[in-house]
Amino acid sequence: MVALTIAVAKGRTADQTITLLKKVGITFTDLTPSSRKLVFYNSDKSIKLIFVKAVDVPTYVEKGAADIGIVGKDNILESKADIYEILDLKIGQCEFAVAGKPGQSLDSVQPLTIATKYPTVAKKHFARKGKAIDVVKLNGSVELAPLIGLSDVIVDIVETGNTLRENGLVILEKVKPISTRLIVNKASFAMKAEHIQPFIKKLKKNLEESRCNT
Amino acid sequence: MQPLINHFYRGNEVGHFQQREELLAILKQRFRTYGYSQIQTTTFEPYDLYASKPVMVNTEEMIKFIDTAGKVLVLRPDATIPITQRMAVSPTQTRTNKRFFYVMDVFRHSQSDDEKERTQAGIECFATRTPAVDAEVIALAIHTLKDCGFPTFKVEIGHAGFFKALIAQSALSEKEITEIQGFIKTKNITEMTNYLQSLTIDIAIKNAIEYIPFLYGKPEAVMDEVKEYGLNSKVQAELTYLMDVYHILQAYELTDDIIFNLGLINDMNYYSNIIFQGFVDQVGKPVVMGGRYDHLGDRFGTDLPAIGFAFDVDLLLGAAQRHHLLEASNIDTTIYIYYELTQQKEALTAAFYLRDQDYAVISKPLTDLPERISESTRIIIYKPTMSMLKYKAKTYEFNHPSELLTIL
Fold it and tell me: Does residue B58 or residue A83 have the better pLDDT?
């Protein structure tokens, strides 16, 4: 049987995914927390798990290097990949938000300068509101930008709000809730239907059951 | 000075271009065997053809410019529209039962340079709708995929009117419909459910829309499921028609490769009835897309029922290379003739003779003979004392070029 390849975002998403797969009876024996290996097979070798950087997961799936991907909605939105987004795994829940110094108005400055790791998401959000913006693309420590005058506000992922608070920033506007999604390559969905469909059904059933229990 | 680096272009590498031509030859040959003749339309077209209401191609995507008279032109953004327009202005008696195929570039603005210019190879069949015509067109698409050598592939069949008919029963705005289409296209059921809840919409229609992404799989199974959704007779008739097409495909023995996908939505809004798209292994986008567009002719004041499809040649080529379906193209089959000047006449006569026999020949004076030559290169040397062919570390003497043919 041709193995189903699943690309998973490294880090927390990977850990949560492995727990989830364990619940539906898919286990990876050679997987240990300290392992640095990037490729794993389950017991009957029907599933191949590969660990990649989160931002690359949509690319792996769109290009067919993986059939399935498990990754945050943030990375899916930013990549604009042409894929199926089949399931919300209800893990890694947080949201996109516009944040800035307390009292900062989003209407006072034109154009608004926005620092973000997610330029596509930021542009789309403000385009929908019909507002002109300048985007400063950063790769980390985005919270710093308004503090030192690099930007007026930031667009970033907010989970608990702790990082914002510690840097004296507040949420000014919510953009979109995000969570971890299961994405599928469009060709794989057609070509490997008899393999992918049962896999999705199993996960879906488990998700519904656990929702009923809580 | 900074060197000007040429951005990627699909034809600027010799080996790559040969493979491309090889693939196009396969497609063209197969199209011909179904009675199609090749045509071409102009690259420059009036902007208004696409941008006047209802808009046919996203105006932001078109590559526009202005001619000396101030008229706005675009580079051909689509192949089907200009071919249909051409048919519409041709004499009435020549309008039906016409079969055309084309290999044309289409131009759209896009993020990456290599996607601004795409080659499409497709067919247009101007004929009234019958299951037999539609099935034959799909069979041709599958036959062509087989010719390319893909071991496995799937063709998804859907209906452009299915979603429209459901939506027509609701009073949704264009923006809301676009949003819902986006969710259906990505099978994003979670977000669609949330979105539908925010709309004031009849519960029955809502349930039906939510179920669209699941209407996917074996035709009989999909038809069984869809029956539960109390469809009106018009929609039901269209779905029965799809099954009629499917039954004819059974006669072609092609049903293993067919999947029904009633959530299929094509970005080109001229499609009116059956639509389909074909996938090959490991390529996340359809390599071929098509469908019936019975009302596109209305736009040009003519009744022109038609069906067609187009292969995305660049995508198909990438897929064929990935599956190693095309011959390796870096083998140099050229014959090199080196001659002493006293033997020039004989050497050039031999070169002419070999070219007549379809060999590629390059002739040069012996002084140009490089010191190192790869073993696999075929070399002919003309000296006053003798003439010989060197190939794979062996030397063959000969008197007349005709002897070369047996050696080669």
Answer: A83
- CB proximity B284 to A under 8 Å: yes
Q: How would you class B272 by CB atoms within 10 Å of its CB: exposed for 0-12, middle for 13-18, buried for 19 or more?
A: buried
Mean pLDDT over the full length of chain B = 87
CB < 8 Å to A185, chain B: 284
Judged by CB atoms closer than 8 Å, whether chains meet at A190 and B284 is answered as no
pTM across the whole model: 0.84
Q: What interface predicted TM-score (ipTM) does this complex get?
A: 0.80
Write out chain A residues lying below 8 Å of B186, CB-based: 83-85
- Name the strands in the sheet holding B394-398, side by side, starting at the edge strand that comes first in the sequence: B361-365, B335-339, B378-382, B387-391, B394-398
Identify which of B188, B190, B279 has the shortest CB distance to residue A190.
B279
At CB < 8 Å, which residues of chain A contact B? 61-64, 82-88, 184-188, 190-191, 193, 197
Per-residue model confidence (pLDDT) at position B208: 82
> Does the pLDDT of residue B179 top 70, yes or no?
yes
Mean pLDDT within B324-337: 78
The yes-or-no verdict on residue A214 having pLDDT over 60 is no
Measured between beta carbons, the chain B residues lying within 8 angstroms of A193 are 217, 259
DSSP state string for B36-103 = -EE----SEEETHHHHSSSP-S-TTTS-EEE-TTS-EEEE---SHHHHHHHHHTS-GGGSSSEEEEEE
